[in-house]
Amino acid sequence: MAKRGDEDDDKRPTSKDGDPEGDAPEQEDEGEEDESASAEGDDAKDESDEDDDAKDESDEDDEAKDESDEDDEAKDESDEDDEAKDESDEDDEAKDESDEDDDANDESDEDDDAKDESEPLAASSDEEGEQEEVMVAGQLGVQRYVYSAFFASVMLGGFILGRALETLWERVAVSDWAVRNIPAVTGVPDESKATYSFIAAGVVAVIVGVYNFRKAHVRRWAEDVSTELLKVKWPTRKEVYASTVVVLATSAVAVVYLFLLDRFWGFLTDKIYGMGS
Q1: Helices 190-213 & 216-230 angle (0-180, nearest 10)
Q2: How much of the chain is helix, strand and coil, in % rounded to 5?
Q3: Of 24, 25, 30, 212, which residue is the least packed, with the fewest Cβ within 10 Å?
Q4: Phi, psi of 14 (to 5 degrees)
Q5: Is 185 in contact with 166 (CB distance < 8 Å)?
Q6: Where are the domains of the chain?
Q7: What is the DSSP string of 42-63?
């Protein structure tokens, strides 16, 4: 049987190349399949390459996106740094303001210290000024006021004494005893009596004034009085006006109050006495 099979195989027709004629179409089909498969493989490879290219592009996009994210992060960090810098600048400004406040406080303290130091100096200067005023007044003003006071005293004393002598002379001149015993005195006219009286009174007043002025204790007393009067602070025109207004207003209120009180009690007593009668 095997031998017959081999013979059948030997009797099968063959191609020019020595291959069996029955296998040629199959080989051609296989070649076409291989070519189509190869083409499909190439297409698949091309698609794979395209996919790889797309993947590469996607990777590049991802990388670009990552770089963009990194840039955004860097920008955020830069913004944070700017904010931190702004906060630092604000802190520096606040510190500068605090330093300025401290400097102002220090200057104020220095001014207070200077003021405290100047107050004793001012007080001492005021005291010295008062002492100088007193000294100047003692050297110039006081003596002038003392002389003026003695002169006024002499004039006033001479006037009062002259009027007194004139009155006394007129009374004596009309008496009978003076007419009989001293006719020269009673015979002087009235106009001359006043003149002679004031002359005599003036001479007496001058003598008394000079005598008192030559006394040390009297002159010292007059100087002390003048010195104290120089220390008196007289009110200003505005103060006098305000005080006058206050006095007048108070007096007007008191007058109105007393008037109304008098009218009220008068009305009340009239009613009481009227009821009794």
Answers
A1: 90
A2: 90, 0, 10
A3: 25
A4: -120, 160
A5: no
A6: 30-116, 129-234
A7: HHHHHHHHHHHHHHHHHHHHHH
Which of 153, 156, 157, 148 is closest to 204 using CA atoms?
Answer: 157
Of 56, 229, 89, nearest to 146 (Cα)?
229
Residues 6+ apart with CB under 8 A from 230: 133, 134, 137, 141, 142, 145
Query: By the 8 A CB rule, do 121 and 161 touch?
Result: no
Encode pLDDT of 210-266 as tens digits: 998 888 888 888 888 888 888 888 889 999 999 999 999 999 999 999 999 999 999
Place of tokens 């009305």: 267
Q: What is the pTM of this model?
A: 0.36
Are 142 and 134 in contact, with CB atoms under 8 Å apart? no
Helix (H, G, I), strand (E, B) or coil at 14: strand
Burial degree of 222 (CB within 10 A; 0-12, 13-18, 19+): buried
pLDDT digits (tens, 9 = 90+) for 150-197: 899 999 999 999 999 888 888 887 777 777 777 777 777 877 888 888
CA neighbor of 142 nearest in space, from 210, 229, 235, 232: 229
Asked whether 166 and 193 are in contact (CB, 8 A), the reply is: yes
Q: Are 262 and 270 in contact (CB under 8 A)?
A: no
Residues found in the chain: 277
Q: Which two tokens stand for residue 223?
A: 């100087």
> Which residue is listed with tokens 């401290």?
102
Q: Which amino acid, one-letter code, is at 150?
A: F
**Residue 13, both tokens:** 């027709």
Number of H helices, E strands in the chain: 8, 0
Q: Copy the structure tokens of residue 272.
A: 């009481």
The structure tokens listed for 103 are 């400097």
